[in-house]
Amino acid sequence: MPDQITIEDLEVRFHVGVPDEERAEPQRLLITIGMNLDLGPSGANDNLAETIDYHAVYQSVKALGQARRWKLIEALADDICELVLEQFRPTAVRVVIKKFILPDARWVCVEMTRPTYP
């Protein structure tokens, strides 16, 4: 198993939904972001510069959500994957987004995994 840093169930309120009226107000979402990276160097040296600053990831994702609107949570997940890969350079990223939209279901979610760019 690769080393991983995970932000589990980050609660946000973003504008997402297919109909315009669903996007009119921000919706509660839970976002999980898993970032693969060799954590050996940061563990051995106790050095933030050798790992991923999860607080910076958190701030970047929150800023993304304040600046955009999406119809699909798939598109939001793809944008988060792209942001994390470009800004933080993990070897891979996994994003899970839970949306609370169906009355008889706990949640609906999408899960997306992307490797780093070559």
Distance from N terminus to C terminus (CA atoms, Å) equals 21 Å
Looking at CATH, the homologous superfamily is GTP cyclohydrolase I, C-terminal domain/NADPH-dependent 7-cyano-7-deazaguanine reductase, N-terminal domain
Helix content, binned percent: 25-40%
Q: pLDDT average, as an integer? A: 95
Percent of residues in beta strands: 25-35%
User: Uncertain regions: pLDDT < 50 for 5+ in a row?
Assistant: none
Q: Give the count of structural domains.
A: 1
What composes the largest sheet?
A: 5 strands, mixed
Return the string of H and E elements.
EHEHHEHEE
Relevant terms:
about 35% strand, about 120 residues, 5-stranded mixed sheet, alpha+beta, about 35% helix, GTP Cyclohydrolase I, domain 2
Outline the structure in words.
The structure is a single chain. This protein has one domain: GTP cyclohydrolase I, C-terminal domain/NADPH-dependent 7-cyano-7-deazaguanine reductase, N-terminal domain (GTP Cyclohydrolase I, domain 2). Helix content is 34%, strand content 35%. Helix 3 packs across helix 4. The model has no long low-confidence stretch (mean pLDDT 95).
Layout of helices and strands, plus pairs?
Layout: E1 4-16, H1 20-23, E2 27-36, H2 40-45, H3 54-67, E3 69-70, H4 73-88, E4 92-99, E5 108-115
Parallel strand pairs: 1-3
Antiparallel strand pairs: 1-2, 2-4, 4-5
Task: Briefly say what this structure is.
The chain is an alpha+beta fold.
